[in-house]
Amino acid sequence: MITEIQTFFRDLAASGINLTIFYDAFDFDRFTTGLGNTLLLILVSAFFSIVIGAACAAILSLTTGWPTKIIRGYVALFRNTPLIVQMYFFYFAIGSIMPVGRSEIGLPQPLIGSFSWAVISLSLYSGAFNTETFRAGVGAVHGSYQEAAFALGYNKRQAFFSVTVPLALRFSFASLANNLVDLTKATTVAYAVGVAELLYVSNQIWSDSLNTIEMMNVMLVIYLILTGAVVVIINRVEAAMRLPGFGLGDGQ
């Protein structure tokens, strides 16, 4: 079966459609490695960005004073500066002052590699948007729910985590899906610091095989699939957590 597929795409290349990733083992390995790194970037960055967003939203909702000022400053900084500038800052400015280790053969080796810096940049960037998403979700919960929790003997922190947060999540899913779709597309910026993600390896392949148009179309299809998968997953989680009657116009 594999041989038949390779033969088909090799014959297709003779007609002018050169998809080397389907019949050349070297290009196939490079492409699958890049795709795997992209998927890993999406999963890890999405996880940490959600954690960052939830933690920052909780701080904004429960505290006052300097913690909230720090969070607001972080959100303003990362939402209003380009992602590529942030990634360059972490990789070149912060990375240049980080301690350097030694490889097995004694050569200098940074303790934090390009992939890790990309994850840090993407997580903080998307985390800033998730902070506003979750904060808006908390603000959308009608105050009567918290008042009912107080009447049952809950303190402010208990009411927030046991009542407000579960309801706020349901208001946040639509905006969170948009943020995660943006994060999925933003992983291509990791190319700038040498992470071998999908765009990076595709550039190598079309430079070697002169099949730019074919690889661009393959990348377009893959990112449509990836962003579609993110939306489907979020929608399924939202449907599973839906409460009958909750989320109507009257806040009930």
Describe the 3D structure.
With 252 residues, this protein is mostly helical. The chain has 9 helices and 2 strands. It has helices at residues 2-14, 25-62, 66-79, 83-96, 114-140, 143-151, 156-186, 198-209, 212-240; strands spanning 100-102, 108-110. Strands 1-2 form a two-stranded antiparallel sheet. Helix 2 packs across helix 5. The protein is globular, with a radius of gyration of 23 Å.
Task: Please write out the topology.
Elements: H1 2-14, H2 25-62, H3 66-79, H4 83-96, E1 100-102, E2 108-110, H5 114-140, H6 143-151, H7 156-186, H8 198-209, H9 212-240
Antiparallel strand pairs: 1-2
Helix pairs in contact: 2-5, 2-7, 2-8, 3-5, 4-5, 5-7, 6-7, 7-9, 8-9
What distinguishing features does this structure have?
252 residues; mainly alpha; MetI-like fold; two-stranded antiparallel ribbon
CATH-defined fold name = MetI-like fold
Q: What is the helix/strand order?
A: HHHHEEHHHHH
> Any idea what the radius of gyration is?
23 Å
User: So, CATH architecture?
Assistant: Orthogonal Bundle
Please, how many helices?
9
- Strand arrangement in the largest pleated sheet: 1-2
Gross morphology is globular
Offer a quick outline of the entry.
The protein has helices spanning 2-14, 25-62, 66-79, 83-96, 114-140, 143-151, 156-186, 198-209, 212-240, and strands at 100-102, 108-110. By secondary structure, it is mainly alpha-helical. Strand 1 and strand 2 form a beta hairpin.
